[in-house]
Amino acid sequence: MSVKKKDILIVDDSELIAERLSLLLQEQESVGFVSKAYNHESAFRQLEQRNPQVVILDINLGSVNGIQLLSMIKEKYPDKIVMMFTNHANPYYRTLCKKAGADYFLDKSKDFELIPDIIDSLD
Prior knowledge:
The protein contains five helices and five strands. It has helices at residues 15-26, 40-50, 66-76, 91-100, 115-121, and strands at residues 6-11, 31-37, 54-57, 81-86, 104-107. Strands 2-1-3-4-5 form a five-stranded parallel sheet, sandwiched between helices. Strand 1 (6-11), helix 1 and strand 2 (31-37) form a beta-alpha-beta unit. The two termini are 14 Å apart.
């Protein structure tokens, strides 16, 4: 049985983190195309052009924070799976992100290696 490949959009203002995550995901059989965006404008362009099934989103993005972007994504694309991936993995931000529609909330310092398994588990 073939695995349905999922396209992924990584939105992070750190090119280093985005590149590391991209390389990790490209090794997964369940991952199709991986695109990267470093701010909210680029993220929306990628959402419209590539139509990824999964968005991995940082909270700190500069002019529009990741929680605001999460709300905008869920409003316009309610079917997208959004994983918040942040250094601010405290209960306050977890609650804000869940209220805004996050499907997952992951700590960059502890949960990096969990992402491929989560992607594999998605239908």
